[in-house]
Amino acid sequence: MDVKTIEACCEPLLAGALSEAEADDLAAAFKVLADPARLRLLSMVANAATGEACGCELVEPLGRSQPTISHHLSVLADAGLLSREKRGKWAWYRVVPDRLAVLRDALSPAR
Amino acid sequence: MDVKTIEACCEPLLAGALSEAEADDLAAAFKVLADPARLRLLSMVANAATGEACGCELVEPLGRSQPTISHHLSVLADAGLLSREKRGKWAWYRVVPDRLAVLRDALSPAR
After folding, report:
1. Regarding beta strands B90-95 and B53-54, do their DSSP bridges make them parallel or antiparallel, or are they unpaired?
2. In A, which residues are within 8 Å of B36 by CB distance?
3. A 82-111: CB under 8 A from B
4. How confident is the model at residue A42 (pLDDT cuts 50, 70, 90)?
5. Quick one: which H or E segment has residue B101?
6. Cα–Cα dist A100/B92, whole Å
7. A51: left (phi over 0), alpha (psi -120 to 50) or beta
8. In sequence order, what are the residues at sequence separation of 6 or more whose Cβ sits closer than 8 angstroms to the Cβ of residue A74?
9. Three-state DSSP class for residue B110
10. What is the pLDDT of residues B33-87, one digit of tens each?
11. Is B24 helix (H, G, I), strand (E, B) or coil?
12. Size of interface A-B (CB pairs under 8 A)
């Protein structure tokens, strides 16, 4: 999966007709969210007590293999929805709320 | 594509860990938006001067075949994002803003 960083792209889709390029970018961003494992990872990181979660903590509750979890975390990080900080053997993740806001804004009522 | 109607399903994903079932439903809903042609159709219907658009008006500006447009309009209607009214030979579509709001709310900051 080729993942582009989610950028503020356009007026809300209810406020103006999307161009082809805007629609491509926005569809790619929603594709990142169109996976149940990725949504659960996002919500688990967002709800970690300290606001960050180690990749190592996320494998067991999700019940998927470690490579699968790593792949999904990479997709989320590449899209900019999670920030990643390497500490020793493991990476730690935080949600980037501004990036989710880009998608929320695209679904806003017309301004 | 098997499309379920989008229903209010859950707390915002930043406000509580999603269950597997909630994540499945939400991912399916985002999958409906994860297509550039469907996003453009949604924005074109939303921005129609009268608030509604005939399927017949949407084929040319999108530059896809009529069966392709019909398929995407059906996916959007099955998900509940568009309402459809048959008049004679053609169907007319309107955006259902409350349904988009379900997805926007799922991406809201924690309450």
Report:
1. antiparallel
2. 20, 23-24, 26-27
3. 95, 97, 100-101, 103-104, 107-110
4. very high
5. helix B97-106
6. 32
7. left
8. none
9. coil
10. 999 999 999 999 999 999 999 999 998 888 889 999 999 999 999 999 999 999 9
11. helix
12. 111
